[in-house]
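Colleagues,

For the teaching module next term, I've prepared a clean inverse folding example: a structure given as tokens, and then the sequence designed for it. I'd like students to try predicting residues themselves before seeing the answer, so please don't circulate the second half yet.
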């Protein structure tokens, strides 16, 4: 999760000065009164806990955490350090001053972005206004599949955040997704390439990635960019904003809040997709967009339902078989099994709670975005604690980061549908008259 380099770089520097011996995270079991403890590397545990604490400060829910899951923020001295750092960047004068500087810079950058409606092939940005995962990658995959079914030739750009390699990712050069990830490609890039079946070009410099794409793909109808909304160097024909069920949080810019750019006086995008909150907000929790904000942010807008979840056996997924089952069916299949859950995503605890509501309990591990666990060590420790694991369930983005495992692995997928009005608009853009 790219939570804003300004916030995390400052916090990581403070982390290096703080000794946190024996940091660990609890493996959440069926009985909350006897959790096992699994040791992890201290930086990953501290950083993932810090990320979750920042999200909680940026998107205060006011609700009580699920009784079936422990907080992701450690208690004791480590928790106190995290709390102090979060206060420093979100509520102190220093954090608020930094947020004002980010707001000014982002507004200037936004004003310099070039929109070229006659661009060929048109570049379509799928982005968001807040730091942290909001479901852009699954939406890009759904749009790519829907547009390909309409006969359009699609390529995809992504930043490759969390990976080391840039350029064109050709998955057929690797024996498995794990081999591609181990070679240095980011987890999101590997997942995009596999699921979309489109040419994928990776680069933090989006304009350079676009140039490489155009040099290698001469017959394209449309290019989708997974994020890059605030990338001034990337010319585009169309912008799609995605706002998830958390809304805009406290409406402050990084690091005091989640916003990458201010909402007020913003040059509007073309299309806004909003996900309805799963629960009615409490008094004072005005995090969702108002009608005035919606009309100001984009020329067209549409409400979307929350995505569903389906499950596949990892072997079927790697073999290309579409044998997904519902959570209800999955709960029946693993009834009585001792599951290990792995969720290295932004809203990891929300995912664990969603499965718990379906009666699916697991010993959850939250390694943080773009990170992998030492699963052999986790399984060995769980066994030594008398909690031998029968199977593993993990997100699709986690599934690309592991090779052969000794247990059955189930992969969680979000079911996104590409909105028909948006697909029609993109098809019209792609098939529009070319310019000479």
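(Answer key — instructors only)
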């Amino acid at each position: 999760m790219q939570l804003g380099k300004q916030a995390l770089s400052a916090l990581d520097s403070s982390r290096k000065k703080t000794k946190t011996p024996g940091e660990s995270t609890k493996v959440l079991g069926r009985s909350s009164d006897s959790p096992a403890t699994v040791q992890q590397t201290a930086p990953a545990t501290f950083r993932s806990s810090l990320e979750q604490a920042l999200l909680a400060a940026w998107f205060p829910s006011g609700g009580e955490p699920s009784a079936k899951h422990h907080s992701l923020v450690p208690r004791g001295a480590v928790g106190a350090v995290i709390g102090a750092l979060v206060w420093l960047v979100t509520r102190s004068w220093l954090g608020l001053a930094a947020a004002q500087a980010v707001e000014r810079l982002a507004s200037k950058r936004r004003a310099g972005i070039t929109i070229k409606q006659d661009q060929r092939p048109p570049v379509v940005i799928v982005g968001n206004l807040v730091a942290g995962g909001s479901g852009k990658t699954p939406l890009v995959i759904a749009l790519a599949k829907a547009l390909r079914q309409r006969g359009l030739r699609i390529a995809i750009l992504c930043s490759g955040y969390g990976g080391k390699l840039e350029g064109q990712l050709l998955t057929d050069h690797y024996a498995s997704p794990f081999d591609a990830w181990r070679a240095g490609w980011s987890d999101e890039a590997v997942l995009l390439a596999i699921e979309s079946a489109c040419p994928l070009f990776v680069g933090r410099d989006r304009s350079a990635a676009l140039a490489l794409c155009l040099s290698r793909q001469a017959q394209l109808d449309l290019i989708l960019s997974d994020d890059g909304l605030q990338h001034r160097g990337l010319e585009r024909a169309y912008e799609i904003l995605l706002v998830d069920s958390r809304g805009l949080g406290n409406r402050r810019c990084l690091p005091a809040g989640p916003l990458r750019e201010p909402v007020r006086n913003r040059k509007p995008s073309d299309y806004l997709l909003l996900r309805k909150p799963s629960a009615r907000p409490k008094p004072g929790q005005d995090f969702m967009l108002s009608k005035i904000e919606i009309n100001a942010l984009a020329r067209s807008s549409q409400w979307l339902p929350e995505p569903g979840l389906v499950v596949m056996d990892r072997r079927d997924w790697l073999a290309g078989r579409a044998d997904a089952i519902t959570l209800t069916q999955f709960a029946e299949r693993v009834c009585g099994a001792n599951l290990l859950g792995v969720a290295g995503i932004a809203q990891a605890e929300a995912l664990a709670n969603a499965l718990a509501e379906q009666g699916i309990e697991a010993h959850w591990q939250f390694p943080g975005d773009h990170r992998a666990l030492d699963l052999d060590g986790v399984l060995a420790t769980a066994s030594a604690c008398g909690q031998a694991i029968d199977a593993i369930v993990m997100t699709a983005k986690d599934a690309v980061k592991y090779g052969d495992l000794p247990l059955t692995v189930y992969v969680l997928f979000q079911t996104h549908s590409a909105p028909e009005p948006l697909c029609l608009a993109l098809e019209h853009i792609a098939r529009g008259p070319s310019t000479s």
